[in-house]
Amino acid sequence: MSILVIEDDPKTGDYLRKGLKEGGYGVDLARTGTDGLRMALERPYDLVILDVMLPGIDGWRIMRALRERRDVRVIFLTARDQLDDRIHGLELGADDYLVKPFSFTELLLRIRTLLRRGVATEPDLFEFGDLRLDVLHRKVTRDGVEIALTNKEFLLLRLLVKGRGSVLSRTQIASEVWHMNFDSDTNVVDVAIKRLRAKIDQPFERKLIHSVRGIGYTFGEEP
């Protein structure tokens, strides 16, 4: 497994490279955002560990570029510890968000969890009515119309479709899609559902994503 660390602080970058190599991973280190983005686009890394405040190109812009051009797991590792920062990073498509100062043991556990995900096989194509979700090609259509989704929107829709007919709680959705436990007052799931509905349901007469008051959301026929 290969990991790219994009970190401008020399001490932190060297510490991460040494520790991850001792953990059995192949590690490359970029000390600027510009170098980090170039390296991330040139090589098929299994995981990117990304700081936010970087010289050249900041972590937010790198995250956007990666989600547009690469399907790679990303962990933000940053001193930006505000709730709005965490929500922003996850909405951009990061798989996890860890705040400095951090426990290296916790980081390793999160890395191992992320790299284990997606091993189980699933169908390459889900169909429900006029909606087709092609997992292999990451393509979604309704009534033959292709719908452009961000990485997190695609993962959210896939979770809803896989669990069609069941009610998924906000906690369950947050855990499965963002791989984190969210504070109870965090509305990131509701915001993501609203954006997904605008693309999947709003242009069409038949609505597929439904709210279940006080619990969460369900996909399919209205409960």
TrEMBL record:
Molecular function in Gene Ontology: phosphorelay response regulator activity; transcription cis-regulatory region binding
Domain Response regulatory, residue spans: 2-115
Entry-linked InterPro entries: CheY-like_superfamily, CusR-like, OmpR/PhoB-type_DNA-bd, Sig_transdc_resp-reg_receiver, WalR-like, WH-like_DNA-bd_sf
UniProt record, GO biological process: regulation of DNA-templated transcription
SUPFAM superfamilies xref list: CheY-like (SSF52172)
Alphabetical UniProt keywords: DNA-binding, Phosphoprotein, Transcription, Transcription regulation, Two-component regulatory system
Protein name in UniProt: DNA-binding response regulator
Lineage, opening ranks: Bacteria, Pseudomonadati, Pseudomonadota, Alphaproteobacteria, Rhodospirillales
Gene Ontology CC entries for this record: cytosol; protein-DNA complex
Pfam family, one: Trans_reg_C
Post-translational modification 4-aspartylphosphate, affected residues: 51
